[in-house]
User: Fold these one by one.
Assistant:
Number 1:
Amino acid sequence: MRKDKSKVIDEQWDDARVKSFLAYRAHDGTPDDFHILLRAYQGMRAGDFARFLTFFAAEGRDLDARNGAGETVLDIVEGHRLGGPYAEALRAAGAGSGGTATA
């Protein structure tokens, strides 16, 4: 690690930072809801991701949005070795039920 870079451990994310992921948009034809969920999964710790899903669902967004290959974010997360807590959060929010969740 470079001397001018410090390692940040256990940084606390406020609601504004978590909600900021709702503003992401896909630029390749992928549905925005899929893109947003995937970016949140890739960029957040499991606890922050679970909080994010509350905001996502409150906006009536689609937890089961699919990419061009027909996969949902839950499908992708379930295939990852460390995806368990994220998959649980998605299911608890209503993913895999065929529609949007109610918060």
Number 2:
Amino acid sequence: MRVRGDPRAQVVRIGARLDAGTSARVRTRLHDAVDSGEGDLILDLSKLEMIDATGLGVLVGTHRRAISVERRLVLRGVPPRIMRILAVTRLNRVLPVEASEVAVA
């Protein structure tokens, strides 16, 4: 996971897995990014291959934390498989997804 700063937004690239094994580390880094930045927090999910319920919880928790400090969490580069999971769980209605990057299959 890499964090890149920008005056208007921060971009965080998520690795291939966001699951029970990686969520504690990712959650800590995402919360640090929310607390230390300004503007949108953009999560680049283009490399994400696998997400489970714990990973979805990390996304929702980070979204709530961002709202609490008047920031916005935005998902970028969501792979079709992950987008289907977001749609089935209806999280695509809660978590903003960049329209230009969405590939729904």
Number 3:
Amino acid sequence: MAQTLEMIFKTGQGRNFRITLDDPRFDLQPSEVKAFMDLVISVNPFDIEGGLVEIVGANIIDTEVQPLQLV
């Protein structure tokens, strides 16, 4: 099963902006994610109109891939 970390921010334009990272550490703590998200907001490394201004939330998404048997 694959996992993805999804971090959701609010922009200065009131829109949601998502950053996803594949295969996060299995022992990742919410406080670490929040600290990173705060850092992203303070550095504002993306060219987004209005910038990133607020944390909306974060999710760990589990994905199970089931290959199809093509004949």
Number 4:
Amino acid sequence: MQTKPITPNQHGTIDYAFSVIQTVTPTLLELPKPTQHVYQILGLSFLTVNALTDTDVAAKPVLTFKQHQRADAAFLAGLALLTLSRPIRTHKRTLAFHLGFLALAITHYVLTDYDSGSGS
């Protein structure tokens, strides 16, 4: 069986980058303050999940990588639903950032080998 190209450790490293993107980019793009706050909360929340996931890049591994996968799925569902919110869909720069980030996050999820266990 062919594995997917992103290992758990790579996934964790990319998640740290995604957390930075979510917490910093909306401010750099001068998106509306409420939108900046939403992304900061999302970025910090996912930073916490990532830091607690059993990979070599964890701060304190208490979650399995399968639990992380479930958190990723919930996170993606939430991001997809967030697309329908008025503040996102009616502000062009916000919508562009949101859809771009959502596409990257979905790609990241699909290419990750969640079945290889932790820390591979």
